[in-house]
Amino acid sequence: MSRMLEIRSQNAADYLRSAGRVATGEPIEIRELAGGVSNAVMLVTLPRRGERFVLKQARERLRVKEEWLCPVERIWHEVESLRTCHEIIAAADAANPEALIPEILWEDRLNFAYTMTAAPNEHKTWKELLLAGELESSQQLADACGRLLGHLHSASWPGKELSAVLHDRTYFVQLRLDPYYQQIARVHLDIAPAIGGLIDTVWNNRHTFVHGDFSPKNLLVWPGHLMLIDFEVGHFGDPAFDLGFLLSHLVLKSVWAGNRRNEYIDIANRFWLSYEATIKPIIGSDKWSALEQRAMWNLAGCMLARVDGKSPVEYLTSSQQQVVREIARGWIMSPAKAWSDAMASVLSAKS
User: What residues contact 75, with CB distance under 8 A and at least 6 apart?
Assistant: First the structure.
């Protein structure tokens, strides 16, 4: 570890020149990108060539209030996960032409870094659009995101062709199960056995490639396109986790939105119906029913984790956090059987 150069915006240009990726004297612009907690991520622009790419390096200590450590070697797991997703979506291009996955350009094994293609400057994250109240465009994005996740899951079901690397769930435990589900079990001791049951069902159901961080902040959008990023916890596991993870963000924003709650729930419903239409014909009604029930349990766990886990969302007031706790705790003890039940419950919950 002592040989690793910690790349920052201040030394990234020198690093790229010394690595032979940029010529001496060639103009270069470096801008650190915000949003992530586990990596240094920089946008590199080469004006003379008209080229731009993203440089990413793993960090051992994550940038959150609670102590949260994870080995930097996880970045090679991320690279394998990214390659897998790129292959899946490339094969499904005709069915979902707006969906894109970054392409890996080169890797630096010594310094635990790699580069990949970048979205254009005019992109925004879906999270930005949702928090700005841009709900008309978010309706269409919900459809596209449902198809994207549906293709990722259905094309890899039952996952037997995934690489051996993606069968390793070490980083999923360190970056998701422990800071999310195991942490809320430590905080909410009275429902810890039920949370343990949720963890067991996530661990024991292995069917597809799972992104593990399928959230609005990791979905970059610009006219006619949608790009999924951040693949470090990708693995062969339970697709119900991805569903619960994404839906939790949309439900949390519906609580945050006050009197516009039903509009945000409509967006969540658009995502759900699009996902269902994509994957259900592939896996059949019985497997779909089981997946839906597990997804609702994960929705509850992820909602509670985003207020009492190690990485809480920043936009909820204390009273809104309490609303989320009450909903999520009830669902963890008695999970909704179907998305329609969960949707109705959120719409009827107190503001």
Answer: 39, 56, 57, 58, 112, 113, 114, 232
